[in-house]
Amino acid sequence: MAKRKVAILISGRGSNMMALAKAAQAADCSYEIAIVASDRPDAAGLAWAREHNLVTFALSPKGIGKPAYEAAIDGALREAGAEVIALAGYMRLLSDEFVAKWRGRIVNIHPSLLPKYKGLDTHGRAIEAGDAVAGCSVHVVTEELDGGEVLGQAEVPIEPGDTAETLAARVLVEEHRLYPRVLADFAAR
Ligand code: GRF
């Protein structure tokens, strides 16, 4: 079966992108990385992607406005043959128009057990609430922030004395296991 071509969008260090790219090297992986794109030309993850011979695209929306920026991203992804978009620490909200163009074909990883803690500071909020468990979710992206169908989740315990940082590190280990597995299932659909 032909591999589905995935575009990964990042804004920062790109550790989930690295996990997705490493998993894609397996001969039987259902997806391959068509392009890694970023709204931050200085994103650390982009340098890693270039070093690993992945196709990259970087453009800052500053000065050109969101519609022109998104049109350029959309064009780069289509030129690369992307069929699915995986958001991996992409810190910008996609417009409703962009989501509609890629309806049902954008996924994201979010560091909470959705529907709990949509948005930012998920770990601090889980600790503050006295939760016993935290985790991460891979979900379909819709117009509603962190609101689309949940495709997979992984849980970790919240330990006494945890800070947002120690909990984030524990969750991140699970993110790197969960995201490649769920993306592979999604790409094989
Ligand atoms: C991860 O915690 C992910 O869940 C969230 O943003 C962070 C990205 O980290 N969406 P990285 O850039 O993949 O290392």
Instruction: Name the CATH class.
Output: Alpha Beta
CATH topology heading:
Rossmann fold
Number of helices: 6
What helical percentage do the residues reach? 25-40%
How many angstroms does the end-to-end distance come to? Answer: 12 Å
In terms of quaternary structure, the protein is single chain
Strands, count: 7
* Lateral arrangement of strands in the main beta sheet: 3-2-1-4-5-6-7
Query: What's the gyration radius in Å?
Result: 16 Å
General shape: globular
Q: Could you list the spans in which at least 5 consecutive residues all have pLDDT below 50?
A: none
Number of domains: 1
Mean pLDDT value: 97
Describe the structure.
The protein is of the alpha/beta class. The protein has a single domain, classed as Rossmann fold. Helix content is 37%, strand content 23%. It contains 6 helices and 7 strands. The protein has a 7-stranded mixed sheet with strand order 3-2-1-4-5-6-7, with helices on both faces. α4 links the parallel β4 and β5. α1 packs parallel to α6 and α5 crosses α6. The model has no long low-confidence stretch (mean pLDDT 97). The structure holds 5-O-phosphono-beta-D-ribofuranosylamine. 5-O-phosphono-beta-D-ribofuranosylamine binds next to α1, β5 and α6.
